[in-house]
Amino acid sequence: MASASRAQFSSRFGFILAAAGSAVGLGNIWGFPTQAANNGGGVFIVVYTLMVIGLAYPLLVAELTIGRYGQANPVQSLRSILPSGSRWLGTLLALVGLTAASCILSFYAILAGWLVGYFLSPILEAIGLTGVSQWLETFSIGRNLFLMLLFMWATIHVVKSGVAEGIERWSTRLMPILVLLFVVLIGYIFTQDGAVDGLKLFLIPDFSQIHPALIHSAMGQAFFSLSLGVCTMMVYGSYLKKDANLPRTAAEVALIDTAIAFIAGLLILPAMFVAQNHGVTIYNDDGQLASSGTLVFDVLPAMFDTMGAPGYLVASIFFALMVIAALTSSISLLEVPVAAAVEELSQPRNYAAWTIGGMISALSAVIIFYFDPLFDWVIVASTEYAQPILGLIFALLVGWIWHRDQVLAELQKGNPAIAAGWFWKIWPVYVRVVCPLLMLYVFFA
Ligand code: PHE
């Protein structure tokens, strides 16, 4: 059980920004807008929002509740909700969860590294270092390794400083900057011709696009975006004070995450059509909109290039925004194995952050060396399989195994009246039956 000196978030606001920081990441800025554009615009937005409310939100409450009840890393937290004979299952699930979190971080750090490169490149070009600037934008093993290590270094640096001093402090600094940069860029992009076409593609529903694959994409997107299934929210929940109202806190986090995904759509798709106006091709030969990778690394930079001097600035601001969003997510991913090592193996935090961060960097390096077979494979295995399957298991544990009185008692700590309210009438049945069935349906449909 928790020691009296265990770290906590210092304020509710700090927690919300840290958890929203974990949730808001490349999934929102990079994934959501292109998914929406390719899946019927407004239709995808509606289905996605329904997935967030109907599936991701209840599971977010479940993960936060397990963590706060356990007041410990995922190994202990998951063990604490299981009956004494089956605690090994908790250990096993936590190990799978922290391995999955490490795998997500291993590819995330490569992507984020490229973004760091694209952030630095315009600055270097502006001061005349054209060679270095081009190197940073050209795919090579050396560049990929260098930038990945730079990003991992930043991630380790935050996590080694602890929950309040590292994670909370940096999230509360970075998240407002992120929102500010969004506002600046959206304001700018809408002064450019073509922006409105992007807005139309994003918002106007195309009902011919409703099919099972759309629901599957929306579910995957919601899981990834809310950082579910890989114990990140469980660990953050374990640092929450006992008087925090869990359903409300989770709702705030889900709302911020969804709002930022939406705002990202208001930036990215208009930017794409502005790029088209500048002569950049944004559709593939088969009529599909360029993939998100092409969009971020080809289309947008090509557009910034056509803008002359202001283009350098706009490009750097845009990539700074992406890097910030990625960093507040990567720290939550690294915190999962680090919290387990600190508490289960009694390692000092500094040492645990460097060793585990080093091991994940080594994994990233392997992916960089064997990029073609490994990169996509790790993404699919960790986000399309591990995340939803673990999420399903957590729902089953909370719904069927964890003692209902204990769940209620935990929720009542931040909300004494909860037993009489609508949330408690719906949520337990919901995680018990509806979430698992919905997930199985989407899996097999
Ligand atoms: N939610 C993050 C994003 O949208 C990614 C993430 C997934 C972070 C799982 C932590 C855990 O980019």
Automatic annotation (TrEMBL):
Q: Which InterPro entries match?
A: Na/ntran_symport, SNS_sf, YocR/YhdH-like
Membrane topology annotation: Multi-pass membrane protein
Q: Which UniProt keywords apply?
A: Membrane, Transmembrane, Transmembrane helix, Transport
Task: Say yes or no: keyword Transport present.
Answer: yes
Give TM segment ranges: 12-31, 43-67, 88-121, 141-159, 171-190, 210-237, 249-275, 311-331, 351-371, 383-402, 422-444
Location comes to: Membrane
Which PROSITE patterns does this entry report, sorted A to Z? NA_NEUROTRAN_SYMP_3
User: What is this protein called in UniProt?
Assistant: Transporter
Which source organism? Photobacterium ganghwense
